[in-house]
Amino acid sequence: MPPLWKSPLYLAFAALLASCTVSGTRYSSGRDVWGHRPGPKGFSTVIIDAGHGGKDAGATSRSTGQREKDLTLDMAMRLRAELGGDFQTLLMRDDDTFVDLDERVIRANRYGDAILVSLHFNSGPSHVRGPETYYWRVDSHGLASRLQRMMSATSPAESANRGLVRRRLRLTRNPAIPCVLLECGYLSHPVESQLIADSAYRQQLAAAIAAAIRAQSAMGDAGTGSLPPPIYAPPSRPTDTRE
Ligand SMILES: [Zn+2]
Fold it and tell me: Which residue in 123, 125, 147, 121 sits closest to 135, CA to CA?
């Protein structure tokens, strides 16, 4: 049996939904809320989302004691500086405050000609290392591919990680604009966490992310392979696993 969101009934419901309200944002029926279209080119705005914050510290490195929420804010500042005057840049948070994931989606949806890049650091078994990129929408595949390629080129080695992953998360499915979630490396890996603690390495990572964003804006999806198939999955909920 196909999953619920591939059933004819659900597709009909999805079409109806496309003319209504999703995640607090009103769409016209001509707009594809699912993002089933080629990736963006020539966009003007980059929304930079520093993951976690405030009461939500995210992961903490056992070897360096660094907290994910501090590192993501640091990366957000570096990425904004790297993007310079090429784009309008907006920070989802610029200090140590908690912002709910659904609130982040609502804020992102205030901008039309924009992409959303959510920054995180990962945690897992101690042998796993390297950056990972998560996307869901068809229009986010090219950007995600570029980001994973550029981050991997910066990271000295990858092992056992998941690389480029299509996963429905609140920040990869629910925004109405192309959106990606970056796990910039594993705080749980003894060597990678030491690298991440080095500000020069974080600067290199930020430069790699900026280069991928610039390439996407200049070329669209050209050279990033064929688009993935559409998937009609409903908005992601807090109860979904692996957020
Ligand atoms: Zn995180």
Answer: 147
Give the C-alpha separation, 106 to 216, whole Å: 24
Ligand 1 centroid to Cα of residue 194, in Å, is 18
3-state SS of 38-59 is CCCCCCCEEEEEECCECCECCC
Main-chain dihedrals φ then ψ at residue 80, nearest 5 degrees = -60, -45
Name the 3-class secondary structure at 135: strand
d(CA 135, CA 88): 22
Distance of alpha carbon 164 from alpha carbon 228, whole angstroms:
12
CA of 53 to the centre of ligand 1 (A): 10
Reported as a single tens digit per residue, the pLDDT across 70-79 is 999 999 999 9
CATH homologous superfamily of 41-219: Zn-dependent exopeptidases (3.40.630.40)
With a cut of 50, list the residues of the chain below it in pLDDT: 1-2, 4-6, 10-30
